[in-house]
Specification:
The chain is mainly beta. It has two domains: 3-215 and 257-290 and 417-424, no CATH class; 219-253 and 292-409, Immunoglobulin-like (Sandwich), CATH 2.60.40. Helices cover 5% and strands 39% of the residues. It is built from four helices and 28 strands. The protein has helices at residues 3-8, 12-15, 50-56, 162-165; strands at residues 27-31, 34-35, 39-40, 58-65, 80-89, 106-111, 114-117, 121-123, 127-134, 153-156, 177-180, 193-201, 208-209, 218-226, 243-255, 258-266, 269-274, 292-298, 305-306, 328-331, 337-339, 342-343, 349-357, 363-372, 380-381, 385-394, 399-409, 423-424. The strands form eight sheets. A six-stranded antiparallel β-sheet has the order 7-6-5-4-9-12. Strand 26 (385-394) and strand 27 form a beta hairpin. The protein is elongated, with a radius of gyration of 24 Å. The two termini are 42 Å apart. 38% of the residues are buried.
């Protein structure tokens, strides 16, 4: 690893140890607080609602600029790390309603489902600039990374290398990077969110709002039907019905790790973006390949569940109708796929495992079929969208007769979670 790569890998927790050239002002008696009340936002089951966010908390890191200075001065070089990856949450009072907007969100400690206040305080003077993501990961800024490093969210140091910065369009100088690497199994994945940074905020600003309204990932769903078939004579008892049931779905050789970075297009017009030219595998080298991964979604009882029949034991893939518009949406009861926005690699594949089962649900035959993921209908997973793959299984040919993919708006208005939707500014 080059010296530049080593610098990129320094976690934010270590930055606090190396900020000796300047010291932040002494803390005041005023706790840092955030407001998340307001109009409704987008969101999915993982972090759709204020209640869901309160169950997982969010992370706050902040840099201090002395009175009369700004985070922008000297490309952020004058800012001093003030707090690193501090957990913020909502401590709900007994008898409080479910709005999660009765009082500000504050610094907390979490032990299981139990929260206790752990406030952090504004400095006596100067300003703070905030960088926030959700859900909070306690080890995201560990000074010593675990071996092997299997963390899905990692905070890395601000970029100082001019060559790397040149490959991060509109990068906000002095801001940290967030390395996101979704877990390989669907139940372990999260709906990662990041708020646009808040720059040069003062103690007198009070509890100001964070904007967690934008999905940063791509949500991937699958729908199936099949061509119809006649099972060979003599292979099953006469008169028994044989059905098709999908047992697992894998997305192979897709990009598995990317940097999300903070942007500023005009003074104080901030946002977030995914890096398409700086790879976590080798940040210093232009054109370095991105890490690859295979993601899997699987059923518990030899089949995946349908959204409409979530508690059904058996779910059969329907035979296609004349219009070929009767695809059945499959979803394991353990989760959905939240994956990185990307242009799909040429060798990315979709693998489907299905079984032919007799009337008691026992498998007669199991098949594995594959097809290329980059399709003429869709070769890119857009940020903040739902991508749906409609797949027609050709059982007699032991293959796939048709795959169509389309990106849709990530509309959460019809979700099954009835808590108050998470607000945005």
């Amino acid at each position: 690893m080059t010296k530049t790569c080593s610098l990129m890998a320094v976690a934010l927790g270590a930055l606090l140890l190396f900020s000796c050239s300047k010291e932040p002002a002494a803390p005041s008696g005023h706790p840092i607080e955030f407001s998340l009340d307001g109009t409704s936002t987008k969101g999915q089951a993982a972090i759709t609602t204020l209640a869901a966010l309160a169950a997982q908390d969010f992370s706050v890191s902040a840099w201090y600029a002395p009175k009369g200075e700004s985070f922008h001065d000297e490309a952020g070089a004058h800012a001093v790390a003030y707090i690193s990856n501090h957990r913020f949450g909502y401590i709900k009072a007994s008898g409080e309603d479910n709005s999660y907007a009765n009082h500000p969100w504050q610094g907390v400690n979490r032990s299981g489902n139990n929260l206790s206040a752990r406030p952090v305080y504004w400095p006596l003077d100067g300003t703070l600039s905030f960088f926030c993501y959700a859900p909070c990961r306690a080890d995201a800024a560990a000074a010593t990374p675990p071996v092997p490093d299997e963390r899905d969210i990692v905070l890395e140091a601000p970029v100082t290398d001019a060559g790397i910065i040149s490959r991060l369009p509109d990068y906000l100088p002095g801001s940290p990077l967030i390395r996101v690497s979704p877990k390989l199994s669907a139940p372990d994945q999260v709906d990662f969110l990041a708020a646009p940074p808040l720059l040069d905020k003062r103690r007198t600003d009070g509890a100001f709002p964070l904007d967690f309204s934008e999905h940063r990932m791509t949500r991937v769903e699958f729908l199936f039907n099949e061509t119809g078939f006649v099972y060979p004579t003599g292979t099953v008892p006469e008169g028994e019905e044989v059905a098709v049931r999908v047992t697992s779905i894998s997305l192979k050789n897709v990009i598995g790790s990317k940097y999300l970075y903070f942007t500023e297009t005009q003074p104080y017009q901030t946002g977030c973006a995914w890096s398409g030219e700086v790879s976590p595998a080798d940040p210093a080298t232009a054109g370095a390949g991105f890490p690859r991964a295979t993601y899997r979604i699987a059923g518990e009882n030899r089949e995946l569940k349908t959204i409409a029949h979530y508690n059904a034991r058996y779910v059969n893939v329907p035979e296609r109708n004349a219009a070929n518009d009767n695809h059945l949406a499959l979803q394991t009861n353990q989760g959905l796929l939240f994956l990185l926005p990307q242009k799909l690699p040429d060798d990315a594949e979709l693998e489907v495992v299905y079984a032919l089962v007799e009337q008691h649900g026992l498998p007669v035959v199991s098949e594995i079929v594959t097809c290329s993921l980059p399709l003429s209908s869709l070769d890119t997973w857009p940020e903040g969208k739902v991508v749906r793959y409609k797949i027609t299984l050709n059982v007699p040919a032991r293959g796939v007769s048709d795959v169509v993919a389309q990106a849709y708006d990530w509309d959460d208005s019809g979700n099954d979670h009835n808590e108050e939707l998470m607000p945005h500014d």
